[in-house]
Amino acid sequence: MKIEDCKILKFPKILDERGNLSFLEEGIHIPFEIKRSYWIYDVPGGEIRGGHSYKVNQEIIIALSGSFDVVLNNGSSEKIVSLNRSYYGLYVPAGIWRHMENFSTNSLAFIVASTEYSENDYERDLNQYREEIANA
Ligand code: TYD
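# thymidine-5'-diphosphate complex -> structure
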């Protein structure tokens, strides 16, 4: 899996003096069928979330509020993507190791996912992940 397959998506932005509005639609802005959404919030300073990869699940990670960094790793290269605008999303395909760090106070990470939650879809062991990549 290539790190370049992790792409920034830009959602529509309707500027309005009353407040801005953005949106996403499954068939138009999202490259998969949405099966689940979840969000991460109230992250204490210095905490790290999401240290794992998925076997099948694809995701789009959006900083709905505040900012945080997504650290992407495919076993051979690493890339850090800072998210700090609610109209950008980071597409992460299956097979990429990622974690989120550097959460600002009151940040809100919103994630749309292509599969329902399944613990079996997680690879949580970085050494195991590296081994699988090396043997692939
Ligand atoms: P997890 O994805 O492991 O978070 P992180 O990778 O940041 O450590 O999720 C934490 C817990 O929440 C885990 O026990 C499973 C549960 N969970 C669900 O029940 N449904 C979900 O959609 C998600 C994402 C997590």
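# post-check
The CA atoms of residues 54 and 119 lie 9 Å apart.
The mean pLDDT is 97.
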